[in-house]
Amino acid sequence: MKLLKWLDDYLEITVCIALMSFMTVLLFIQVVMRRVFSQSLYWSEELARYVFIWLVYFGISYGAKIMKHIRIDAFLGIFPKKIRPFIVILGDLLFLAFAVFIIFTSSDIVNKQMILNQRSPAIHMPIALVYAAPFAGFILTSVRQIQTIIFRVKTLRKAELEAQARLQGGERG
Fold it and tell me: Under a CB-based contact definition with an 8 Å cutoff, are residues 61 and 137 in contact?
């Protein structure tokens, strides 16, 4: 149970920090090799590119977890205040639908890459691993979006109950 709680709280940020650290060290070593030793690691840039791709998709999930994805707040201003929470939830549902679409689309691409058994040029890694990044990232994003939607609905429901209690309290007084 503690492991699940830890994963829920820290999975994306831990993976993002590890990937960013690895990529930074890898590129630093490449620069040192090139500038100091006049030699180049033929595989480092390719590996850094693939690590960056995975970092981006875990970052999308992290953004969903902390509810900080891009949205146009000015657009919310055209709606009455009472409707705005519902518009935000609608936006979350649309983003969830997009994430599910990407999961299905990327799973087809990963399956095709596995059949083709294509390999990367420098490190001979299966390209299916690179194409699996959107699949894994958007599975996590979908989970985070579902958590966000549940949180927003509970918050909305709690606000409604508090408003009803204030109205009922005002009617008695």
Answer: yes
If one counts every other C-beta atom within 10 angstroms of the C-beta of residue 58, the result is 25
Instruction: Report the number of distinct structural domains present in the chain.
Output: 1
CA distance 30 to 27: 5
Question: Are the CB atoms for 71 and 91 separated by under 8 Å?
Answer: yes
For residue 91, what are its two tokens?
């936006």
Q: What is the DSSP string of 79-102?
A: S-TTTHHHHHHHHHHHHHHHHHHH
Domain that holds residue 167: 2-172
**Residue 124: CB partners within 8 Å, gap ≥ 6?**
none
- Distance CA(159)–CA(165), nearest Å, equals 10
Distance CA 105, CA 113 (A): 13
Instruction: Tell me the mean pLDDT per 10 residues along the chain, length 173.
Output: 87 96 96 92 94 97 88 81 91 95 97 95 95 97 95 92 81 56
